[in-house]
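User: My instructor asked us to take a sequence, write out its structure as tokens, and then describe one feature of it. I'm not sure where to start. Here is the sequence I was given:
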Amino acid sequence: MSEIACYCRVSTDDQSLDRQLSSTRDYAEREFGADLADLEVYRDKSTGTNTDRSGYQEMVANANAGDLDAVVVHSVSRVCRSISDLERTASRLEGAGVELHIVTEGLTLRPGDDDPFQRALFQLLGVFAELEANMAQQRTKEGIAARQAKDDYHHGPAPLGFEKDDGRLVEAENYHDVVAVLDMVRKDELSKRKAAKRLETSRATINRSLDRAELYGL
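Assistant: Let's start with the prediction itself. The structure tokens for your sequence are:
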């Protein structure tokens, strides 16, 4: 029996997975008359700009096996961060005869549906998703370059989420976690106290990091 899939992607365990789950489940219930037993939920924790994720890959494999009728995602940015990823996902699902429903943007792509408006909107959304990711990366690079140009950088400790390599600032192993947590604090989705605990640092460090938002593409 085929099922409706909900795909959710988060950057850290503290991020708003519940909101995505609620959004996609409500949509599936409203549009398909599905209950929780009819839904297959796929989850990933990833900050990368590619789709090499276990939950995503499992979803695509099940779609190809004929186990899914439709995939519901909260927004374009949850299933991709580049136009190539978005087109690849759409092509894979379409080839498997699976519908793709994007809740926030109100977009539905059905196999065999040649609606030019829907296709154009779909591609445009992918362009904006990729542009947003690229702009964040550029802001980070510019912020790092600006900080490296300051004399106090060479004598002080590396900012949260960074480390020094031969006098240059480079991303530390926990950089993506730091970015995700700071973004949640900035959006009032997480308190500074909880953010400090999550990153094993102090609230003062969280405040200093938020003052250096350009370092994190925020």
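For the description part of your assignment, you could build on this observation: The radius of gyration is 20 Å. Try explaining in your own words what that tells you about the chain.
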